[in-house]
Write the structure tokens for this entry.
Amino acid sequence: MQKRTLGTQGLEAAAIGYGAMGITSAYGAADEAGGIAAIRRAHDLGVTMFDTAELYGMGTGSNEEIVGRAIAPFRDEVVVATKFGWVMPLNPEKLYDSRPENIRKVAENSLKYLGVDVLDVFYQHRVDPDVPIEDVAGTVAELVAEGKVKYFGLSEAAPDTIRRAHAVHPVSVLQSEFSIFERATAAEVLPTVRELGIGFVAYSPLGRGFLTGDVRPASEYAADDMRSTDPRWQPGDYEKNLAAIDALRDLASSKDATVTQLALAWLLAQGDDIVPIPGTRSVARVEENSAAADLALAQADLARIDEIVPDGAFGARYVDFVMPVG
Ligand SMILES: NC(=O)c1ccc[n+]([C@@H]2O[C@H](COP(=O)([O-])OP(=O)(O)OC[C@H]3O[C@@H](n4cnc5c(N)ncnc54)[C@H](OP(=O)(O)O)[C@@H]3O)[C@@H](O)[C@H]2O)c1
């Protein structure tokens, strides 16, 4: 698979990456065996960037342990990325914790859980309003100097925060939500990251599964599946979003592709500094998703997608209390 360069510090990844969150959280029951098989198949197909976080193990390290076990046979061929600083639901009173001592603690735990000598990308998961970003960047810079971290990343940070962090230690990559269904976040930050030479990792590139067409109304998801409360799945908005998927499917079919592949190819067409990280626990779906790297879209296809979904999905992207603050 073709490689993309993220930032100017040497970070490279295949055009399509892999997100491990759903193996243990967010989308119903955990599936360790499915996740490991999916990660290994992704590697066979040329995927090189594997994304996890402290949060996805809900404080147990389980997601990082699964990712670590899955990549162990080929660890030196891949980029492993993890994140610190989003402590909910460990502490419902405080969502975020980027105090230097917590960043250091998470780094040590992540190295241990992943079973690696160095964290290739260490992201701040969410901006912590109680800790100046300069202190966060300074702490990560120390971890880089100590050889524990290679590249610094931010997630859902606003332009001014990115600039301030980058002035202390170079940010290689910003990870934020970006998909046919979520355009506003990227529109706000892409000019800044491009000016500063920072790469962009697109999370939830399939709109949490909506952009695959394999969806059901909110009431049909289990309580531990975030789509049961996700605004885009709620009655009213759900039907409008589904109508958009039907129109996208017609376009995809005309190119012998699936809606999922169209959604990933659309992201790749937004710039060669963008790497989407779709998540799945299925080998067959990893195969479908990886094949999107070969789907080229013409200007007319991109224009048609804009016609079908001019402003992103109907419904907010998060329930209020976890909406990023930047
Ligand atoms: N930085 C952040 O704050 C943040 C936030 C959210 C996510 N992320 C990262 O981004 C990654 C991806 O985002 P995401 O997992 O939220 O959403 P996503 O990749 O947009 O969608 C994942 C959902 O789509 C389904 N799916 C995947 N491929 C499919 C296919 N070919 N056909 C049908 N269904 C398919 C998956 O189901 P199955 O698993 O059942 O196949 C899962 O339910 C995460 O794993 C995580 O690493 C980061």
Remarks:
- Strands lie at 3-6, 11-14, 18-19, 49-51, 79-84, 119-124, 149-155, 171-177, 199-203, 274-276.
- The CA atoms of residues 218 and 228 lie 4 Å apart.
- The two ends are 33 Å apart (CA to CA).
